[in-house]
Specification:
Shape: globular
Order of helices and strands: EHEHEEEEEHEH
Structural class: alpha+beta
Strand content: 25-35%
Number of domains: 1
CATH topology: ph1033 like fold
CATH superfamily: ph1033 like domains
Largest sheet: 6 strands, mixed
DNA sequence: GCCAACGTTGGC
DNA sequence: GCCAACGTTGGC
């Protein structure tokens, strides 16, 4: 069992959007970074859990917990000509980008990035590293436990 | 809106 | 394969 953190702009897909989706499940689409893609494709297993993180918004932070509910499959948005996520080099025969499905476990009170930064126990989190911009990253088991038990209790 | 940090592209 | 130029991310 691996733990993850996944960033989404709430203007695009928020934790409430996941809660409102059929079966509380949405495809995670639009990842266009190879490292993040490889985490989805090679690292994620059905049943893994992830922090759902709101980024690029007034109050960035952890907004809930989701579970990975599918293995990786081709991201449909890469084929949508004219769309924001279109990739002219991707074809159905040789897809370049993948999605996984995520299912809501629970929405939480927002745990702001500002707050995360104040905990010495979390100082090594990849999320908090200077210049870190990855949209999908692994979370250490100890960090996961600390955040879920002490901060999202 | 600014800008630091990082990733990608493409000429050579 | 180098690296400058450019584009993107994302907090502030």
């Amino acid at each position: 069992m691996q733990y993850w953190l996944m960033k989404s702009e709430p203007d695009e897909v928020s934790i409430d959007d996941v809660a409102a989706a059929p079966a509380r499940t949405v495809p995670w689409f639009g990842v266009r970074n190879y490292q993040a893609r490889n985490f989805m494709r090679d690292g994620m297993r059905v049943g893994d859990q992830a922090f759902f993180y709101h980024s690029s918004c007034a109050e960035p932070g952890i907004a809930g917990i989701v579970e990975i509910s599918s293995v990786a499959y081709p991201d449909a948005s890469q084929y949508e000509a004219g769309g924001k996520y279109f990739d002219p080099k991707a074809t159905p025969e040789t897809p370049r980008w993948v999605s996984v499905d995520v299912t809501l476990v629970r929405k939480t009170a927002l745990l702001p990035l500002r707050e995360l930064r104040t905990h010495a126990e979390l100082e090594h989190m990849k999320l908090l590293a200077k210049g870190s911009r990855l949209s999908i990253m692994p979370v250490e088991a100890g960090e996961w436990r600390y955040i879920t038990q002490q901060l999202l209790a």
